[in-house]
């Protein structure tokens, strides 16, 4: 239903059907057509679900010679009539009905002063997630499923990346581009229902998609998690996306705690399109251009080969830079007069030290293939896969004399430098499968498949130095190391629908074998090591010290799973389903989980549904093995923090428990309201309890272990000042409400579509699972040495929008279409980065509060010719930005328990004689990527040329 949000223009990518001859006895329209006319009746192919005739179906008649269109709706018997048409053709007749696949009838020719009759049979818009039956629609499902018509949306809406397209289409889904977040600048983290990035399972054509090799370590979203990079797939090659908003680990395996996303690739066998999209922000930066091609080919009588390729470029952006000498000076700290004198002596101004603080520069080349060959009525072969190469270029904070004098090498960068952290990402996947058995009831089918996925991210650095090498240091490091992840999944599923058991029963069972391999690759030693050329400097290249010998690691694991899934229609009005699953991992043990769901058609227009399930999420191999030393610039110089894996001796010495699986319990209940064929409403409430949730611990400083000289020596041996570990340290509960409504109507010879949807969610921490030897750290007054730091806790509880509400209006008439979309992002709050100066430990950081924001998109589409469609639009038309970090501090809570920001700032000034540095870097990083991006208005032009007409 959400796919109807902005269907401006004819979606030529949908499957074409030849015009039928018409019924043997053509129905008589209620309004007798006169002159050159078109009439007919629309019926359902699934009489048991919807009745034989479809009232309220939208019928749009396109005259290709002029590009004009006429629209009407079917009456209570499914009949329609369009009069006053031009004789000849060709015409295309498009028929749409909520819950059914749209049908396009091509090559329709009309005779002068006669009525041409059509009989149109619509097939239900079935879903592939939440059920293993092949005839369930989203509204018939016992669990909530959003269906996003990507093939239509990508032709007109501002977004082209899948993550951003879903961000403005599915309320329960959230994704924002990160800045100053290391590798997360180049891979957009996303989540569902405010949970972790790794608690949403992603499928492609029903098969498990591999995750990235990247662990999100510096991002505001998905901190400490490993997600799936949706942007490795070209959106032009995607037909639709189904988002199952319910726990489904028993059906699909680990990671499906928050829900499941299934990406269905295009399967058209002859049509295609060329897409050109270009745009720029109202500030004149962030130029974005994409060129993509999709084309289908016939393989045999019933098979297809669908190919997609695209290339895109997105330039960097800068927002809100206004360097403040009291916050982040260049030459002299805490002395504005001396700072100005130093600037003048160097012949510089603050404009020479602009911080690149927005979107990274990114270039993508992507390819995608989807194919099926039907050998016989009972044997078919299929395959799909793709490849993505991405080049990302991002900047880290400036290295300046005022804060890091020992890392400024006068011979190379006398006035400081802004390191660049760049990535090369290679991502590929391939699935081969064979399907045995005849379609239809009372026939066993067997699906065998093997899927291999690979993700590799390698870093290179520019405009930086390893200061311990002094003037002999390179300023460019072509290889700073990286990581790669390989996953292979072999799957077998047996399925049969018994139409004589009860009112219809589907039984499915199968097994899966998965093998994962993860490796951290060592880079150029000069980027990571410490040398004696400059004894005052710390080790490694500034901005990102890469991966050295101590970080290099490789590991693997396997798991075997088996499931049973039964779905029974007890009566034609009552459905009950259940699933059982057992999985065993080579690394940490086994899990047994289950799911039960039901749906009751209480009245003709009201259905009730509910589900209960248990779930689990195994710690990702990346979380188990990741190890790296990172830099953290502070007011007293650079400090080094280490992330140490489960295999490291330091973990054992400190007393951190080994990782084990998260466990969950999900409850959901909802209703489906369809009082008219043109209107539907779904409402679902949910509760998700997660025990032993995996997070990244707080910074455990070596000073915290003064009582244990051996531990302090262990830190020194590891060459770090503080350490982090992945731990099972939280029990959480998430509650929420999802609402989705859609309405379509023929209006004044045009078509009106209205869609509104909302998500309201709240997460609370029920218990902190802190080992006894760390409880004193959690309870002391130093928030920077907590076992679980306040920032991490706040990101889990309030780091995702408390609500998101969408309202879309679209009207098409003739060659024109106009769309208006409004998105309300709710409040977000989290703690600022804690201070790195020991004398400030007792303050902590501000609780930053970002108030709700509304983003408005406007687009106008024009069908210029039969094949060419144009869209001119503006994303974020009113140039709305989130609160700045400075504003969020004023909205929030001051450090140290002060009642107001003014009181805290005055106290700090009196105590230290200088202005407060909180919140950190607020002048050079004016914005944070919270509810949405902060680039502001974006104007774009999109052209689509349809092939195969």
TrEMBL record:
Keywords tagged on the record: Cell outer membrane, Collagen, Membrane, Signal, TonB box, Transmembrane, Transmembrane beta strand, Transport
Primary localization: membrane
Domain TonB-dependent receptor plug: 139-260
Pfam families per the UniProt record, alphabetical: CarboxypepD_reg, Plug, TonB_dep_Rec_b-barrel
Topology versus the membrane: Multi-pass membrane protein
Alphabetical list of Gene3D superfamilies matching this protein: Carboxypeptidase-like, regulatory domain, TonB-dependent receptor, beta-barrel domain, TonB-dependent receptor, plug domain
InterPro entries: Beta-barrel_TonB (IPR000531), Beta-barrel_TonB_sf (IPR036942), CarboxyPept-like_regulatory (IPR008969), Plug_dom (IPR012910), Plug_dom_sf (IPR037066), TonB-dep_rcpt-like (IPR039426)
Subcellular location, record wording: Cell outer membrane
Signal peptide: 1-19
Residues annotated as domain TonB-dependent receptor-like beta-barrel: 401-877
Top-rank taxon: Bacteria
Keyword hit for Transport: yes
Keyword Transmembrane assigned: yes
PANTHER family: PTHR47234, SECRETIN_TONB SHORT N-TERMINAL DOMAIN-CONTAINING PROTEIN
Record-stated family: Belongs to the TonB-dependent receptor family.
Protein name (Swiss-Prot/TrEMBL): Collagen-binding protein
Record organism: Hymenobacter frigidus
